[in-house]
């Protein structure tokens, strides 16, 4: 069937594009991949700043509508990544498509995942330090800081299984959004493809490991940096957020959410579409 060059790519062609992009990602120069991962970590952190700002003080809107607004704002992060070429761990797991087609080795895949994960963490923490230096948490009479800490506190109280499941659902949506960009013929196509999948996962409260690399450290440092004036203005105390610790973050959130993100994006999106569209070609070959 003839397909006009201006039409969106068809699903089978999207799968082949995912395979080729997986090879490109896994064989990219390590320094370039790491720096692009740093930018992606910062991009997702910027999106969480946007989310926190627009959802703070909006109680009159209602829980669902407020989260929808925040989700749309958060989609800025993935927009920045897909247009500017950032390396984001949650979409990098789609390189399993190239591995399933035996276009890259397991060592190449593992090296790429580790490099991107570390770069994302560095980028997210770098943005945390900038936002702390700016004392961003003091805006709104300190209510912005309370939002940072309250959101993070909620994230630390999922059970391990719950955090994994929330991570699975998050990266199903993220990778479906990214997968749809593989059909795109223009920047506009890419931007429209990612908005609603991202808005959905954020509004639904699903868990994204890279977003949490920014948001929870931002909350932890805020607890320790806030002065007496901040606590007096907000009517809270540091003791109210005593559970915001690095140990709780790493063990009760980042670890299970990362596992879930790998399952959701790598297995339920990447390998699923490989099985449907590319495995038959491999069998024929």
From TrEMBL:
* Compartments it resides in: Cell inner membrane
Q: Which reaction does it catalyse?
A: formate(in) = formate(out)
Which superkingdom heads the taxonomic lineage of this protein's source? Answer: Bacteria
Membrane-spanning ranges: 33-54, 74-100, 112-134, 159-179, 191-214, 254-276
GO terms for MF: formate transmembrane transporter activity
Give a Pfam family name: Form_Nir_trans
**Primary localization:** membrane
Is Membrane one of the keywords UniProt gives this record?
yes
InterPro entries cross-referenced by the UniProt entry: Aquaporin-like, For/NO2_transpt, For/NO2_transpt_CS, Formate_transptr_FocA
Got a GO cellular component term for this one? plasma membrane
Q: In the UniProt record, does the keyword Cell inner membrane occur?
A: yes
Q: How does it sit in the membrane?
A: Multi-pass membrane protein
What are the protein's UniProt keywords? Cell inner membrane, Cell membrane, Membrane, Transmembrane, Transmembrane helix, Transport
Question: What family does this belong to?
Answer: Belongs to the FNT transporter (TC 1.A.16) family.
Name of the protein in question: Formate transporter
């Amino acid at each position: 069937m003839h397909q006009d060059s201006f039409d969106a790519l068809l699903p089978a062609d999207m799968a082949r594009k995912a395979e080729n992009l997986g090879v490109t990602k896994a064989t990219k120069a390590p320094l370039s991949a790491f720096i692009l991962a740093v930018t992606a970590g910062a991009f997702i952190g910027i999106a969480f700043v946007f989310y926190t700002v627009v959802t703070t003080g909006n109680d009159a809107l209602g829980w669902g509508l407020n989260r929808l607004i925040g989700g749309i704002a958060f989609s800025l992060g993935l927009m920045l990544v897909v247009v500017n070429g950032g390396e984001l761990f949650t979409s990098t797991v789609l390189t399993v498509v190239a591995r399933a087609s035996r276009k890259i080795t397991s060592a190449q895949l593992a090296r790429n995942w580790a490099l991107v994960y570390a770069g994302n963490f560095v980028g997210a923490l770098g943005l945390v330090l900038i936002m702390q230096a700016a004392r961003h948490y003091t805006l709104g009479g300190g209510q912005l800081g309370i939002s940072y800490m309250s959101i993070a506190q909620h994230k630390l109280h999922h059970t391990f299984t719950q955090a994994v499941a929330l991570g699975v659902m998050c990266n199903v949506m993220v990778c479906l959004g990214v997968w749809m960009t593989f059909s795109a013929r223009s920047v506009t196509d890419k931007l429209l493809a990612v908005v609603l999948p991202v808005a959905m996962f954020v509004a639904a409260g699903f868990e994204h490991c890279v977003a949490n690399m920014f948001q929870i450290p931002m909350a932890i440092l805020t607890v320790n940096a806030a002065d007496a004036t901040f606590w007096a203005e907000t009517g809270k105390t540091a003791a109210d957020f005593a559970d915001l610790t690095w140990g709780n973050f790493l063990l009760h959130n980042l670890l299970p959410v990362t596992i879930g993100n790998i399952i959701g994006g790598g297995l339920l999106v990447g390998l699923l579409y490989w099985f449907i569209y590319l495995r038959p070609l491999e069998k024929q070959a």
